[in-house]
Amino acid sequence: MDNEVSAGNGSTVVVGRLALGITLLAFGLGTTGVIDGVATSDAVSVAHYVGGVALFLVGLVAFRGGDGVSGTGFVALGALWFTWAAGGHSSADAAGLFLLLFALVALTLTLAGGDGLGQVMYGLLFLAMVVLAVAAFADSSALAKAGGWVAVVSGAVAWYAATAALAHWPTALSGRAAGRGVTATG
């Protein structure tokens, strides 16, 4: 396992992942309804300022530092969180469409490569947004809760990735093809 930040400028990646992780945790926990009296609407301020403004600014700093992948990801996600927090979805179908567009950005970031934790984080974000979009189209509270839990897991992965980089915990996923004792020759 690798103990270094493996993609982009270390500090912008860490700050961006912390902002994304906190936003996803607040949004996801609110969506699940697991905490009495906390709803998705309670995540609006976090999404607006941390997920929107802060993440967008971190993306601009990443661009300035030459990290196009993190810059693109953080700017796009910051703009989407800011838009979500501003609200104004006129219908459940409009909300579902917005979440599908959010999912497409997450899919692009997943496929862009980078380190393993980043791909897992973005892949889970993609899955969360797809499930939440389907929940909006189908008006399904059970699917919405499931999507919220996937968002929580994505947020936890983002938080771990940022914290691990600062605390020098492992940040690379194991590249082993099989169990112990298996080696490649050549």
- Let me know the number of strands: 0
Overall structural class, as computed from helix and strand content, comes to mainly alpha
Task: Please indicate the percent range of residues in DSSP E strands (runs of 2 or more).
Answer: under 5%
Q: Mean pLDDT score, rounded?
A: 87
Distance between the termini: 22 Å
The H-and-E topology, N to C, reads as HHHHHH
Shape type: globular
Proportion in helices = over 70%
Would you kindly provide a written description of the structure presented here, covering whatever features stand out?
It is built from six helices and no strands. It has helices spanning 10-32, 44-64, 68-86, 92-111, 116-138, 141-167. The relative contact order is 0.18. The protein is mostly helical. It is globular, with a radius of gyration of 17 Å.
What would the keywords be for this entry?
186 residues; mainly alpha; 6 helices; 72% helix; disordered C terminus
Topology, pairings included?
Layout: H1 10-32, H2 44-64, H3 68-86, H4 92-111, H5 116-138, H6 141-167
Helix pairs in contact: 1-2, 1-6, 2-3, 3-4, 4-5, 5-6
In short:
The chain is an all-alpha fold. The chain contains six helices and no strands.
